[in-house]
Each structure stands twice: as structure tokens, then as C-alpha cells.
Amino acid sequence: MKHRVQIDLSFETAADAEAVVADVKRRLGKAVVVKEADGMRDGGYCEYHRCYHDEQPGRACEVVERVEVEKEIVPAKVVVGDAAR
Ligand SMILES: [Zn+2]
After folding, report:
1. 49 Cα–ligand 1 center, Å
2. Is residue 4 situated within a structural domain?
3. Ligand 1: distance of its center to the CA of 52 in Å?
4. d(C-alpha 22, C-alpha 9), whole Å
5. How many independent structural domains does the chain possess?
6. Is residue 7 part of a domain?
7. Could you tell me if residue 31 is inside a domain?
């Protein structure tokens, strides 16, 4: 059994989004990959993207940073980008 957190939050400012990502990254050292009963691995992640779903015409979201838990034992690592602006 694990204690799993899933969130999806949108903010008006990059600063607020970056603050949440920074907090998650500080805690990633304790995050683990879930090994399911059938042996499959179910890793966690945190993704920050610029979301244009509220614009007309819409356009594709842009990933700014994605962090994944890749190991059964820490550390997690940054997979895509690093807060490029
Ligand atoms: Zn989006």
C-alpha cells in the first residue's frame, strides 16, 4: 500500500506554477515507483506546461518541465527541460 497524490492545478502566473513544481521536486526524493501485483511498474510524474485551452483558436500545450520518478529507489530525475522561458 502506498499513499498516492494526484493533482492538476492551473494558475494565472508562472511564478505560482513554478512554486508548486519546486515544492514537488523537493519532495521527489521520497517518491517511489509502484510495483503492481502483475509486476508492471507505475511511476509518478510532475509536468508543468503552458496550457492554451482557454484561447481561440486553441493551440498545443507546451511542456516547460516534466519530472518523473523512474527508480524504485530515489532519486527521481528531470526528463524534459528545466523551466525554460
Ligand atoms: Zn494544457
Report:
1. 6
2. no
3. 6
4. 14
5. 1
6. no
7. yes
